[in-house]
């Protein structure tokens, strides 16, 4: 068991740091405070891949590794759209995925928001001229936020969440009157 | 330019079946079937069958008007290819047991439109329902169905799985894929070779280096480009790093799926370190854009050599610990052994490749069978297991990480001086074609590329290892309990995007 016990005391979670300047982009508690304040401690996200190259999913999965550990901020990828606040979309929207994508959206209770990740859902990416692609996402759903990149790095995705929180904070006051 | 030995033959339709039978008996297996609309200069559709085995690729050309002989009954591996050709070209495989639509869904596509025909006018049918897809049915007392997907519970790509169960054990699994069909082959047509690189690397992002190597092998042989030694070495270094990070992630997921979060997270950290290494080498965590026609885009200097050497040293150390942990833990072994068994006969019939073939005792590794770059200089032996279960596939990955580490070590030590890129003239012979082959972390990546008369792409066909391996899961799960399906699936860890294209 020494293999396991050795691991137990190794913590990697850290502030998200900008490569170039070395300064902290996101302080460990900044995003958490936002999530706490705005959404009562939890932001639940449902992901739909509508036709990606799988690199975007790999980066989203990387958010759960010990370096980023997204759940410490209160942000969680959930299994059912019924539990979600946010529909996160990767990929270029293929004809075959259009229906499942829209059905997933329908099944998320309101209020709900769409966040797109990567260049594909915004423009169709390299696949945009294909006979079997019918994106971009904005043709069908209102996109609250877009996270750029091909693929966006985990840091960029976390920054995106933070920006999204700021945005909600403002619109929250307007639409729910609190 | 790599020389692959290719045996070319033209065959008549009527004696093709017995020929395929003979081929199988001599140990040949299907590498892929490629259709192409060559009516413009040949007045017919060409269907080319590529068989591998014994270090030589055999190519058989069949010329077709509307119908062609299906070989699925004697060569089950051909089934999917024939359905694909039926979808995209409208050619009918005579005697095919299951001609349902494959990648174009009747739920949104009008079948009178066949997008890969050269006279297709680029008009897409309106998105509306044109028909229904019929699933297979299993009936009987106490039998029920469990439907999973296309949208899954976790962060995974879409695919639909339909289980028929009697109690807990799986009686039948039917997979419906191609949700992510992006029509990449068509988009590539009419573009030039370098432009297409951006699409090739996005076929299956996590294997992009190895897939690009296969594509470039085909293109560079069409254009008669001879790479510098240094470029070959660097391509191989990137390819092996990609293999290592893929394997590390795959093993991590296996731990995750059997509820051992601690070792899993340890390996995910290791994966992250490798991705960061990638970024320090090429500015990109997936090594996207690291290769180009005629060479590589990023050189490796002494600092980078040091960084790579240190990281892979640590990878080996962690994997050794991990291996010992697996072998000493009865709870881990209990989940992995005898689960998801794909036996050798099935693997042969379905013409599997990569990890899935080697775990079932088939010595298929493109690096050894059809050596490319400078793999021929290494005395590689295929790592083999016989049991074909989840354990075999896990252990195989760990063992192959050691092999890759050794390869990288040798390459770094002997890295020759020279340029990393050569200039070339983009003047291919009109309608010249070539094939490319490489071993990705999943298996054999096969490219068929044909130039047109203006130096652009006339036809590009890619066969992903996942396309060949997916059907085997339907056999691997039989008799297993449904709760083991995620584990079996992860132990193969196939690409949906590469399969769906
Ligand atoms: S945005 Fe780029 S990385 Fe993400 S799925 Fe599209 S092609 Fe792949």
The name CATH uses for the topology of the domain at 206-430 in chain B is Cytochrome-c3 Hydrogenase, chain B
Class per helix and strand makeup of chain B:
alpha+beta
Strand residue content of chain A: 15-25%
Number of domains of chain A: 1
C-alpha end-to-end distance of chain B: 27 Å
- CATH architecture heading of chain A: 3-Layer(aba) Sandwich
Please tell me the CATH architecture of the domain at 206-430 in chain B by its name. Orthogonal Bundle
Helix content of chain B: 40-55%
Radius of gyration of chain A: 17 Å
Q: Point out poorly predicted stretches of chain B.
A: none
The unique ligands bound to this protein are: iron/sulfur cluster
- What do the pLDDT scores of chain A average to? 81
Apparent shape of chain B: globular
CATH topology of chain A: Rossmann fold
Quickly name the level 1 CATH class of chain A.
Answer: Alpha Beta
For this structure, the quaternary state is: heterodimer
């Amino acid at each position: 068991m020494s293999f396991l016990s050795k691991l137990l005391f190794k913590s990697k979670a850290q502030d998200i740091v900008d490569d170039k300047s070395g300064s902290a982009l996101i302080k460990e508690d900044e995003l958490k405070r936002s999530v706490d304040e705005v959404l009562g401690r939890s932001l639940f996200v449902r992901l739909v891949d509508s036709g990606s190259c799988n690199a975007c999913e790999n980066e989203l999965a990387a958010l759960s590794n010990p370096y980023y550990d997204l759940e410490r901020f209160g942000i969680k990828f959930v299994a059912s759209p019924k539990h979600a606040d946010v529909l996160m979309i990767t990929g270029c929207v293929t004809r075959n995925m259009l229906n499942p994508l829209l059905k997933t959206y329908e099944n998320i209770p309101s209020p709900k928001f769409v966040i797109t990740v990567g260049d594909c859902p915004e423009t169709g990416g390299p696949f945009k001229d294909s006979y079997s692609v019918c994106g971009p996402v904005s043709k069908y759903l209102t996109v609250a936020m877009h996270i750029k990149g091909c693929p966006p790095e985990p840091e960029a995705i976390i920054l995106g969440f933070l920006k999204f929180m700021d945005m909600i904070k403002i619109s929250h006051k307007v639409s729910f009157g609190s | 330019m790599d020389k692959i030995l290719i045996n070319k033959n033209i065959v008549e339709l009527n004696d093709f079946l017995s020929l395929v039978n003979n081929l199988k008996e001599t140990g040949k297996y299907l590498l892929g079937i490629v259709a192409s609309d060559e009516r413009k200069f040949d007045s017919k559709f060409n269907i080319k069958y590529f068989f591998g085995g014994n270090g030589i690729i055999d190519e058989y050309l069949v010329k077709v008007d509307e119908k062609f002989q299906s070989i699925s009954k004697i060569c089950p591996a051909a089934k999917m290819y024939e359905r694909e050709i039926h979808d995209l070209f409208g050619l009918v495989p005579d005697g095919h047991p299951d001609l349902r639509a494959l990648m174009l869904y009747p739920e949104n596509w009008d079948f009178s439109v066949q997008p890969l025909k050269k006279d297709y006018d680029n008009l897409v049918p309106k998105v509306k329902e044109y028909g229904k897809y019929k699933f297979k049915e299993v009936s009987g007392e106490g039998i029920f169905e469990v439907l999973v997907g296309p949208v899954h519970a976790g962060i995974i790509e879409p695919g639909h799985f339909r289980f028929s169960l009697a109690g807990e054990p799986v009686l039948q699994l039917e997979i419906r894929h191609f949700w992510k069909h992006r029509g990449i082959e068509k988009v590539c047509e009419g573009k030039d070779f370098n432009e297409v690189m951006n699409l090739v690397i996005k076929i299956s992002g996590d294997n992009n280096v190895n897939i690009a190597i296969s594509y470039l092998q085909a293109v560079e042989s069409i254009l008669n480009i001879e790479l510098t030694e240094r470029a070959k070495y660097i391509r191989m270094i990137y390819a092996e790093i990609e293999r290592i990070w893929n394997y590390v992630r795959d093993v991590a997921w296996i731990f995750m799926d059997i509820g051992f979060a601690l070792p899993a997270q340890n390996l995910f950290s290791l994966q992250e370190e490798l991705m960061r290494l990638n970024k320090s080498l090429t500015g990109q965590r997936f090594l996207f854009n690291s290769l180009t026609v005629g060479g590589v885009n990023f050189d490796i200097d002494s600092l980078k050599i040091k960084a790579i050497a240190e990281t892979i040293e640590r990878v080996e150390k962690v994997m050794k610990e991990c291996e010992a942990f697996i072998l000493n833990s009865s709870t881990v072994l209990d989940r992995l052994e005898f689960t998801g068994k794909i036996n050798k006969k099935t693997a042969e019939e379905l013409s599997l490749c990569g990890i899935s073939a080697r775990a079932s005792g088939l010595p298929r590794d493109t690096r050894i069978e059809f050596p490319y770059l400078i793999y021929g200089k290494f005395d590689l032996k295929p790592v083999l297991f016989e049991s074909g279960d989840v354990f075999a596939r896990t252990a195989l990955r760990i063992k192959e990480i050691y092999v890759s580490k050794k390869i990288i070590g040798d390459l770094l030590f002997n890295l020759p001086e020279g340029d990393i890129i050569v200039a070339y003239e983009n003047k291919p012979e009109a309608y010249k074609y070539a094939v490319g082959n490489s071993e990705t972390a999943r298996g054999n990546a096969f490219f068929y590329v044909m130039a047109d008369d203006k130096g652009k792409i006339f036809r590009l066909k890619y066969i992903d290892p996942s396309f060949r391996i997916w059907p085997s899961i339907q056999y691997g799960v039989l008799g297993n309990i449904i709760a083991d399906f995620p584990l079996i699936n992860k132990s193969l860890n196939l690409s949906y995007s590469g399969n769906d294209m």
